């Protein structure tokens, strides 16, 4: 029987107007400490987002913000000071409460045998 690993995940949400607290799920970030795994999957359904948020939504800015999550998860030198933190600290920073257009849900735990497959499954269930 394959080993099960504890993982944590949060859903990435686009919140066009934070005062209304309405959002669309656009991605999932998953962290598995025992595997040193931290990755994000996201999509930008532009037509749906523009219908939801209106013409004031800056899609270029949204793409930039979501790609920042990707760079920080990768942890390369080009990902800035946050990207240089240990994996656990990067996950905690990415999932910290914030009041911006891109927010995360509460963090949820689970067990998995393959973090990458689990990320794909969660993305399919919660976003796609």
Helix content: 25-40%
Give the termini separation: 30 Å
> If helices are DSSP runs of H or I spanning 4 or more residues, what is the number of helices?
5
Main sheet attributes: strand count, strand direction, barrel closure: 5 strands, antiparallel
> What's the Cα radius of gyration?
15 Å
Shape label:
globular
Order of helices and strands: EEEHHHHEEH
Give the mean pLDDT. 93
Content-based structural category = alpha+beta
How many β strands by DSSP? Answer: 5
Unreliable residue stretches:
none
Strand content: 25-35%
Topology:
Layout: E1 5-14, E2 24-32, E3 37-42, H1 46-53, H2 59-74, H3 80-83, H4 87-94, E4 102-104, E5 108-112, H5 115-126
Antiparallel strand pairs: 1-2, 1-4, 1-5, 2-3
Question: What keyword list fits this structure?
Answer:
128 residues; alpha+beta; 26% strand; DUF3037; DUF3037 domain-containing protein
Walk me through what this model shows.
This protein is of the alpha+beta class. The relative contact order is 0.27. It is globular, with a radius of gyration of 15 Å. The longest helix has 16 residues, at 59-74. It is built from five helices and five strands, in the order βββααααββα. The protein has helices spanning 46-53, 59-74, 80-83, 87-94, 115-126, and strands at 5-14, 24-32, 37-42, 102-104, 108-112. InterPro entries: DUF3037 (IPR021398). This is DUF3037 domain-containing protein.
Brief sketch in words of this structure:
This is DUF3037 domain-containing protein. The chain is of the alpha+beta class and 128 residues long.
């Amino acid at each position: 029987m394959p080993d099960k690993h504890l993982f944590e995940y949060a859903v990435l949400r686009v919140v066009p107007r934070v005062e209304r607290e309405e959002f669309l799920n656009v991605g999932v970030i998953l962290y598995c400490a025992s595997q040193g795994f931290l990755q994000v999957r996201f999509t930008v359904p532009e037509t749906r987002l523009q219908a939801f948020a209106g013409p004031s939504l800056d899609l270029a800015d949204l793409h930039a913000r979501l790609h920042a999550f990707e760079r920080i998860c990768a942890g390369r030198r080009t990902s800035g000071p946050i990207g240089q933190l240990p994996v656990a600290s990067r996950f905690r920073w990415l999932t910290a409460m914030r009041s911006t257009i891109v927010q995360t849900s509460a963090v949820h735990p689970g067990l998995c045998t393959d973090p990458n497959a689990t990320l794909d499954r969660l993305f399919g269930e919660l976003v796609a």
